[in-house]
Specification:
Helix content: over 70%
Number of helices: 9
Strand content: under 5%
Number of domains: 1
Number of strands: 0
Oligomer: single chain
Distance between the termini: 54 Å
Radius of gyration: 19 Å
Amino acid sequence: MGIGARGGPMNHLATAAAPRPKADAWFFPVMTAVVWLGVIMGFGGEMVRQSRAGDLTYPLIVHIHALVFTGWLVVFTAQVVFIRQGRFGLHRTLGLAAMALAGVMLVLGPATALIVQVNRLGSPAADPAFLAVSMSDMISFAGLVCAGFINRAKGALHKRLMLLSTLALADAGFGRWSFALLGQSLQPVLGDGFACAFITGCGFSALALLAPMFLDLVMHRRISAGVAWATAWAIGWLVVATSLYPNPVWKALAGGLVAWLGGQ
């Protein structure tokens, strides 16, 4: 499982830290629970309220996307359980199915985001600029999940990459409740600039993305270069999304794209 055993003290940043079972054994189940909690807090309450009001009037592709996304979380959870139980054969077999599911997500995610915005054209809910968030999350996920697949033989690095990819997917869920929780209290202090938008919209996602690096630093006294670059990639796309969303040029481009797709 470890990939740092052959690395000497001078090249420990070039390889993933050798895993310590006692650390990883609790870390990944806890982070899996964090992902589920963040998503449920972000979407669960809203879905219940809309269902009671008979207002679940989303396009069919939204329901399909929700089903596939939930499937990804279930598969990721199962993979964590299989590793904890030492069922490596099942983990490898399910991993191939997970990669196919990731491919579906990479097509379905952008398609869903675009169709939702097209359906909202001309309504108060229309927000084409939000495509910055949707597309950034998918690009982040794509890079991380591909890196995870490529590095599947390097256990410590692979696990961290797959966790980061799942956190990238869950960003929208985290952002919904973190904005509701922090927005009103921080906006009067920080204003309407980038800092407030990032902290309220992406703060909890960023902290979760930093967790694997923090674990390695505390438990292993070193951070692998692969995990460092992957974390920078994921947080970098949060920065891109936060920067693009209020940008007038981006708003014009996104609005024009959605209008064109909607035949207007």
